[in-house]
């Protein structure tokens, strides 16, 4: 054991063995020893050793070993009237405290309530039930209103969904119709692309044929004009010699030709054909 603790134990044994201190109560002595820093076990050992020293008539020095020898029962310390009085006071105080606690905190709960308390509790419960019923009615009314609102919203949503579905169906139908029309237009365009070269070939063939026919007509007309010009030249020469000294006049064939030319319009050939005919006339005249 620590030397300091051993010294404290020796002082405690001396304090308990002193006849002057034994006049005080055991509780006071124990409180004094606790204030000096001794533990409960050390105080018990000190009391045992002090009682042994008193019985033996001398002071027993404290040793760090056990207070009793092995195999020897501890010596019973006799109590005097002061110890019994202190024990009785402590026990009575404990019993009085337990009774006061039970009276103030336990007995009111164990005591049955009176009729007025029953009535008050009944009225309070009735008021609570009425308040709860009122709250339930209000909640039911609010629930009905919310249900009606949700039903209206559901109908609106159903209507909107139906309208959207119809609009989508119409859009799909419109897209289908547009797709069909585009397919037809594409087919027509493809047909036109296929037929256009053929039509152009036909037009070119017809133009070539018309151009050839017109050339033949122009050649025959040119031959007629040349033959009529030669005939008119010879006739004019003979008439000049026969009509010397007469008044000059317009020949009858010129009058007939001018009248027929004024009454019969000459067809206008195409620009390309006119250019070709003009070049042919230039070649012929040259």
UniProtKB/TrEMBL annotation:
Residues 277-286 have a biased composition (Polar residues). Keywords: Coiled coil, Membrane, Peroxisome, Protein transport, Translocation, Transport. Residues 258-276 have a biased composition (Low complexity). One of its GO terms (cellular component) is peroxisomal importomer complex. Its main location: membrane. GO terms for biological process: protein import into peroxisome matrix, docking. Residues 253-286 are annotated as: Disordered. The keyword Calcium does not apply. The keyword Protein transport applies. Residues 115-224 form a coiled coil. Residues 5-47 form the Peroxisome membrane anchor protein Pex14p N-terminal domain. GO terms for molecular function: signaling receptor binding. PANTHER family: PEROXISOMAL MEMBRANE PROTEIN PEX14. Belongs to the peroxin-14 family. Component of the PEX13-PEX14 docking complex, a translocon channel that specifically mediates the import of peroxisomal cargo proteins bound to PEX5 receptor. The PEX13-PEX14 docking complex forms a large import pore which can be opened to a diameter of about 9 nm. Mechanistically, PEX5 receptor along with cargo proteins associates with the PEX14 subunit of the PEX13-PEX14 docking complex in the cytosol, leading to the insertion of the receptor into the organelle membrane with the concomitant translocation of the cargo into the peroxisome matrix. This is Peroxisomal membrane protein PEX14.
